[in-house]
Each structure stands twice: as C-alpha cells, then as structure tokens.
Known about the structure:
By secondary structure, the protein is mostly helical. It has helices at residues 3-16, 20-26, 29-44, 51-84, 88-96, 102-117, 121-128, 141-188, 200-209, 211-225, 229-235, 245-255, 284-322, and strands spanning 259-260, 263-265, 268-270, 274-275.
Amino acid sequence: MAEPTILAAMALEGALGWPSSLHARIGHPVGLFAKIITGCERALNRPAWPDWQRRLAGLAAMLALIVMAACVSALAVLGVRAVAGNWAWAVLALLAWPALAARSLDDHVRPVLAALEAGDLVAARRRVGMIVGRETRDLDEAGVARAAIESLAESFCDGVAAPLFWLGLGGLPGVWAYKAINTADSLIGHPEEPLRAYGWAAARIDDLVNLIPARLAGLLLCLVGGGGWGTMLRDHALHASPNAGWPEAAMAGVLGVRLAGPVRYDGVAADKPWIGREGGEAGAADLRRALGVYRRACAALALGAWILGILGILGIVGSAWQV
C-alpha cells in the first residue's frame, strides 16, 4: 500500500484510537469476524467427528474466512480508486485505521498503571482482567504488573507491528486478512478441548503470518529500550508460542524483570517457565517504563512511515507536475 495511506492510518489511530462512541454505534470490524468464526465453529466443530475431520473442517473455515476478508477488501480498494481518484489514499487510510491498535492498547494499559500507582489493587486486577485471559482475582501487585507488561509486549506485535507489516506488504486486503487470522487464533486457536483439533489450522496460520513481524517487534523493542538482546535470544523459545516469546523476552530483558511464570486459567494452574528469570519482580514503576518503551517503539514505526510517506507524497506531486 502507498506510504501516505499507511502514514495517515497511523496518524488517525494514534490520535483517536477506536473511539467508544464509534464502537457503540457501529462496533468494530473484528466483531464481524468474531461472529463468522464462532458461527462456523458451532456448525463445524462436531464432537462426534474424529480429529482429522475436525482439523479439515477448521482449515476449510479458515481458508474461506481469509479469502472473504481479502476479496471484500480488494473490491473496496477498486471501488475507492475508481471514485476517489487522486484522493483514494485518504479514503483507504480510513478503511485501514481500525486494523491498527497502537493507541487502543495504550488506552487499555494506562488504567492498570493508574490503579497500581494509587495502591488500588482491586481496581488494578479488574482493569488487567480486561486485557488478559488468566485469572486475576488473586494476583498481587507483581502479578498484575507482569500480566500488563506481557500483554503490552505481545500485543505490540499483534496490534501494531504485524498489521503494519501486512498493510505495507499486501495493502488493505493484506491487513484485513491478517486481522481475520489473528481474531480466529484468539477465539479458537486453543490447545484444549473442544477446540484442539478444530482450531489447529487457525493457530498454525497465525504462527505463520506472525513469523517475521514478531521477530521485528522484538528487535525494535531491544533497539529503543537500549538492551535486552541476550534475554530475547536466550528466552524467546520458553514461551508456548513460537512468536510471542520474541517481544515478551525482549521486554523482560529491557526492563530487567522476570515475566510469565505460574498462572491460572479457568481454575487450572499452568506452570509456565520464567522469561528473564534473573530479573526482579515487576511493579508499577516497571509497568510505567514498559509503556515508555512501547511508545518509543510505536514512535519509531511512525517515523519510518513518515519518512516513507514524505517520499511517496513527493513522488505523487512529481508525477502530477509532469502530467
């Protein structure tokens, strides 16, 4: 996609996030993906079927979802270019805007930090419970801070770096196909029953499309954080995901704290290994530092888009002048 479009989409999301008033009126595009994904799962994930059949059904549903998202987006691009002409880049930026989540993620993490700094652990648990899947009712300050930092690091890939990567590589069809895949992974890509077989394709496809962005996200966090390389290279494989460990281990190394460790999901304990095991316990001050690292990483991406955008605008102006 043209650089001015990427820059404008980033500027819109950075300034506005996804406003609650807009969400109340029209929802969010991923909500449509969620309805399609859950509807297909109810229809196709039949307990009586053997695992191979449920895997095949899940793969077919994923391919249909990806093709639908890409084709609808491609038709939108053709329509916008036909109608808007030289201003198509601005309209396409509006359509790409909801696929990015840099400001939205910041908006969700800040209340957790505010509650921790105010000493209100109950509110902090409630706030962090809105952005993580683990049980939060018994978390201490370190557990809340750790959960928020992990979410911030992992979502830097899923919500910022990867969407920008696919927006730049595949335009509007690329970024919305990615969002469909990522939404499916979050809803059905689980190793537990009854989703283990049916959600296998969603999890593996999500692993594939995040392969490069996750590593780029980890490298960028280390770069703007001024360190963390050793921890990232050593501990990224300790994460259950082949991708999420890169930004998470990078953040642990930058901050000098340990992340992951034992957690509980729906009453079941998960004895996860520590990432950054030699680091200290996380606290409110570390969460504030993590937000700073995250914002600098987002700013670095914006600067790159701005430079490319200026070059793109100069190219458009030059072409128009020649005409």
